[in-house]
Design goal:
Blueprint (H helix, E strand, L loop, with lengths): L1 H5 L4 E12 L32 E9 L5 E7 L5 H17 L4 E6 L3 H4 L1 H17 L4 E6 L11 H10 L9 H12 L15
Parallel strand pairs: 1-4, 4-5
Antiparallel strand pairs: 1-2, 2-3
Helix pairs in contact: 2-4
Protein name: Tc1-like transposase DDE domain-containing protein
InterPro entries: RNaseH_sf, Tc1-like_DDE_dom
GO molecular function: nucleic acid binding
């Protein structure tokens, strides 16, 4: 951290995590309203024939200094290693555009972070950056197991869920993703997905 903070022009510190955004679950929320006219949140349910998922997954990278940004990419499906590498590749491209050379990546021990596929991708990525002299190097720092309070992105998720709650009606998955991106002030990029193999 000291090295990154001493070289803010070349280094970025990023806290990475994934989050599920539910169309039906309600966050813990307090609000003020006129006397005897409280807002009531109603637990919704999804119809059996609703083709949309009950929840959507999202990868996030929180860059506290100097950017103070949240970068989000939603996923068609669930977090897996091949989606993780797509997200990391995208983050490196974005950071390179900002003139950064190294990303200090702080994340947890999720299986899709420490898998052989992700480790191989990181090794290959480092070799390519070293050989070409271009791109963004990733210094991976794993948090201790079962310590979400050490990840600075966690409170962002909690507050974000409170900002996007729908009091009246049920949001569609795309509408929910759009609202989440709006809450964090970031663009709603194309969703990450695993390409379908052609038989």
């Amino acid at each position: 951290m000291e090295v990154a903070e001493a070289n803010p022009e070349e280094w970025a510190v990023g806290f990475q995590d994934e989050c599920w955004w539910s169309r039906v679950a309600l966050p813990t929320l307090s609000s003020f309203s006129e006397e005897k006219k409280p807002d009531r949140m109603i637990q919704r349910s999804v119809a059996k024939d609703d083709p949309e998922p009950k929840a959507i997954s999202c990868y996030g990278l929180y860059l506290p200094r100097p950017l103070g940004d949240m970068w989000l990419r939603f996923v068609d499906g669930r977090p897996v290693s091949s989606i993780t590498t797509q997200f990391l590749s995208w983050c490196c491209e974005e950071l390179e555009g900002l003139g950064k050379k190294t990303l200090l990546l702080i994340w947890d021990n999720a299986s899709w972070h420490i898998s052989k596929e992700v480790k191989r991708w990181l090794g290959k990525h480092h070799r390519e950056v070293k050989e070409s002299g271009e791109g963004v190097r990733i210094v991976s720092c794993l948090l201790p197991k079962q310590s979400p309070w050490l990840n600075a992105i966690e409170p962002k998720w909690v507050h974000g869920k409170r900002r996007v709650v729908e009091f009246d009606g049920l949001l569609g998955s795309y509408e929910l993703a759009d609202r989440v991106c709006g809450a964090f002030g970031c663009p709603h990029h194309e969703h990450l997905s695993i390409p379908q193999e052609v038989a």
